[in-house]
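Technical note accompanying the year-one report. For the benefit of new consortium partners, we illustrate the data format agreed upon in the data management plan: each record pairs a sequence with a structure-token string. No post-processing was applied to the example shown here.
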Amino acid sequence: MPDYGHKVVFPNSTLFEKKGFGKVAHIPFIFDGNLRYVRFPNRFLIDRGVGYWDPKNRGATRNPLPPSRQSMKNYAYWLANALEWASLRGIDLMTCDYSEVLINRYQREMLKGIYSERNTPLAAETVNSRVQVALDFQLWAAQGTARAGPCSDRDAHLFGGLA
């Protein structure tokens, strides 16, 4: 995997389960280039990983079949890539314009090889997956989900009853 400034980290599932965090033990998390936990992107991954939010229902109902461990790994890497790209360009990924920034810049730069590890065009499938997760993150943020407290009432059962 390329060395992004943003790092994807995988929890020790056994330790998380022992400490009462089993429901989030399969969800990777992201640190920024300064090794700081990035709250909103990680909140998005948690909501996605436990089924609170998905692109189809957009939080209206809980998805009884949340994404697999492999899907969560992919989402985390794709989101970290988008966050790194945005960070390098001084763009706020949560609020930027979808068509102007994600399509006309991020997608275009990957398709042309401007933003790729080897400076070669990336496959359309790779580009589309990355852009889709960035859009999903924007949709999640636009719904105000990101403004919920770090441990709201609905989260109490995820974090051992601590609210």
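Partners are asked to follow this layout when depositing records. The chain has a mean pLDDT of 87.
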